[in-house]
């Protein structure tokens, strides 16, 4: 019988192939994430809204009460402090913040009164009890209240520990990126 010998492959060659394959997989995943991001897809990892994949849809009309929106917070010292405390995440909005998913609960001209709960034009906003301290025991400073300025919206999440307008006040409506639509989510 004739003996067939396999040619030995150098160990370094196998490592190079594995490294090339790994780089190709990582590059493909990275390109896919960028493509999905450009198409308006976002991943929500915060409990203020359902966890999972969301999409930013164009808002081709005036924002309305009860619209669930993606919004960028302004790049202010207060928002940078909120980022340092972990209330906000890093992302692609101005100042390096990730967009938030919040519900529009009041618009320009409406009056906000902050007590133990939020009142909008005298009516209690459900699920709006203020937290005096965050999960680490640090004091939270609520928004002072007042009339929402022209071109601004007041944002809310039903999640009790949400960082929303209860603490940072109204935001400019032109900071809204679009409507928030669930694609594939899980609400724990």
From TrEMBL:
InterPro entries reported for this sequence: LexA/Signal_pep-like_sf, Peptidase_S26, Peptidase_S26C_TraF
Location of the protein in the cell: Periplasm
Single GO MF annotation: serine-type endopeptidase activity
Main location: periplasm
Keywords attached to this entry: Conjugation, Hydrolase, Membrane, Periplasm, Protease, Signal, Transmembrane, Transmembrane helix
Cellular component GO terms, alphabetical: periplasmic space
Domain Peptidase S26: residue ranges: 24-184
GO BP terms in the entry: signal peptide processing
Annotated TM spans: 20-41
Family to which the UniProt record says this protein belongs: Belongs to the peptidase S26C family.
Protein name: Conjugal transfer pilin processing protease TraF
Organism (species): Agrobacterium albertimagni AOL15
């Amino acid at each position: 019988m004739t003996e067939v010998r396999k040619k030995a492959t150098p160990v370094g060659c196998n490592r190079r192939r594995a490294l090339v394959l790994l780089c190709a997989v990582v590059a493909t995943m990275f390109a896919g994430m960028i493509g999905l991001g450009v198409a308006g897809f976002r991943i929500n990892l915060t409990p203020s809204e359902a966890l999972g994949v969301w999409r930013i849809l164009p808002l081709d009309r005036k924002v309305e009460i009860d619209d669930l929106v993606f919004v960028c917070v302004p790049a202010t010292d207060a928002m940078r402090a909120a980022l340092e405390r972990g209330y906000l995440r890093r992302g692609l909005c101005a100042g390096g913040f990730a967009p938030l998913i919040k519900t529009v609960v009041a618009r320009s001209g409406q009056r906000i009164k902050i007590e133990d709960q939020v009142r909008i034009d005298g009516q209690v906003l459900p699920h709006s009890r203020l937290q005096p301290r965050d999960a680490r025991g640090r004091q939270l400073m609520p928004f002072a209240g007042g009339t929402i300025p022209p071109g601004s919206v007041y944002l809310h999440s039903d999640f009790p520990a949400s960082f929303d307008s209860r603490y940072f006040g109204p935001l400019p409506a032109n900071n809204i990126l679009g409507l928030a639509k669930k694609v594939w989510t899980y609400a724990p």
